[in-house]
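INFO  loader      accepted 1 record
INFO  loader      residues=454
INFO  predictor   begin
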Amino acid sequence: MNIKTDISTDAVLTADTHLIQSFADLNLLKQDGARTVIVGAEGAMVRDSEGNELIDGIGGLWCSNVGHGRREIIDAITKQLNELDFYSTFYNFTHPTAAALAEKLAELAPGQLNKVYFGNSGSVANDSAVRILHHYNNRLGRPKKKKILSRIGAYHGSTHLAIAMTTPAYSVGWDHVEGLVHHLKSPHYWREGDGMTEAEFCDALVEDLKDTIERLGAENIAAFVAEPIQGAGGVVVPPEGYHARMAKVCSDNDIKYIADEVVTAFGRLGHFFASQDVFGHTPDIINTAKGLTSGYQPLSATIVSDEIHEVISRPGGMFLHGMTYSGHPAAAAAGLANIALMEKEQIPEKARVTGKLFENTLRGLADLDIVGEVRGSHFMMGVEFVRDKETRESFAPEDAIGLKLARAAQKRGLIARPLGNILILSPTLILTEGQIGQIGDILRESITDVSRNL
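INFO  predictor   done
INFO  writer      dumping tokens
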């Protein structure tokens, strides 16, 4: 990695005392050695301010799909800024780059998902979907049809509405919208199956949806929102057939299905979108962000069906929703260049092969004593650690097992994301076979090392 820096770690950390990090224990960050300064990146690697090269095992944050330092995207952003640095898409205004990206997303999305609203984060995309559906039902004369069904273990963002749709564990000590969102049972078979077969567990989840609809009244429910694979809730893959069956129940009750593909889209599971190609159903709305630009610019998209758009675009109403930077020219240019690069290099297709190798490499860790479950798919994986493999007893929070393992891995050259008793791996999609093997070796060494001191 040819990155030269003259950045003083101490200078950055002094300045960083003014920065509020996301999802961090701000008190712990006051301690020496608690923060890592990343100063450069190239391909699947990043470099810290001490000169250490690290495999970016979390892909920035689920998002660096095509890898770091891709000139094709950087040059497209620069070219766009030289041509048109900014103009909004409010009122009657548009510009060529936002229009072209919307057209491309409509081409890639399944079914009749042909209308695109741009935002700047996954949280905004999910908020926008709910606001659009609330307005949709108002236009249809159904002002009570507003409730949202989500799930235990879900993560849909951290804005005030999105956090209400997120699993309650992320709201401890914080407020969120009350009464709007109702959480269905977790689809985590390993933890929640309770002696059932996977098929029986899926039946129970579908019945939970039906019971909730009966209890709340379909006339009061606007939508069910679900990630194809739950991400920040622990990388939970639902039982086979789950999404198609849940979608059928929703359709039978005139409840819209929102697929939160903020993480799963743009190659992470081997396809541009996972809902239809992997899980066999076409939602009414797909929300995406992260891999849409591979993190080179902040951009999200709420992609809605023609039917929804037809209602909200009827005469006699206004679309009173907007973000200043919606469809920002530079962000849209990044999205177009990112997609073009993925198509040219067939990154989603290759990820079906290398992603499965990555998945199987991590599954090979299951023989270690404290590894309870290795779960996920392709380049979206989680490893859960347990004190007792037979009883699946979890480590106590004060054991900080995930944090200890993440630190051990980082010392060996790998960034992994700790989440309680889980390590999350969501690397770039361009890993070589050698880098995949290296990740497996580092994790095995780190787990073995930490286990000795438990």
